[in-house]
Write a structure and sequence with these properties.
Elements (H helix, E strand, L loop, with lengths): L1 H9 L24 E4 L2 E5 L8 E10 L16 E8 L7 E5 L6 E6 L8 E4 L2 E4 L15
Antiparallel strand pairs: 1-2, 2-6, 3-4, 4-5, 5-6, 7-8
């Protein structure tokens, strides 16, 4: 189940029927994943089924424009401003909290190399936030 979630989280739209990951995150295409850009890093939107623990406001971010003309956005689409927050107990270099584009719903965004299994677990039919993962002192990333 968790492996399927991880694969789905990083997938884009595979049809022209709409721009959704199929798990509630909107505004994506195969070449323009839903996400936010914060401090020159891209964070992909994870499932809206994951619990959110909004922490301290980090500041300004943006929903990047698609800029390739092959998906939901136009060729010259510019980014749109938003804000992101830390997720309590998690390094914002890996994971942030923000609003799903075009909504007021808070969702979790993770760096492309971040693994949702390091931050969430599926127990009893419900997603739960893991306690703060042990981190590698060299990279600040969760220890494996």
């Amino acid at each position: 189940m968790v492996g399927a979630l991880a694969a789905a989280l990083l997938a884009g739209c595979v049809s022209d029927a709409g721009c959704s990951l199929g798990i509630g995150v909107e505004h994506a295409s195969a070449s323009c994943a839903a996400g936010v850009s914060y401090q020159d890093h891209f964070y992909v939107a994870w499932s809206d089924e994951l619990p959110v623990a909004k922490g301290e406001l980090l500041g300004a971010a943006e929903y990047p424009g698609c800029n390739d003309g092959s998906g939901c956005g136009g060729v010259d689409e510019e980014g749109r401003p938003t804000r992101v927050w830390a997720m309590r107990g998690v390094d914002p270099e890996q994971v942030v909290v923000g609003r799903a584009e075009g909504t007021d719903q808070l969702v979790v965004f993770g760096r492309l190399h971040a693994d949702p299994k390091d931050y969430f677990r599926f127990v009893g039919g419900t997603w739960h936030i893991r306690r703060a993962p042990a981190t590698s002192t060299a990279t600040g990333a969760p220890a494996r």
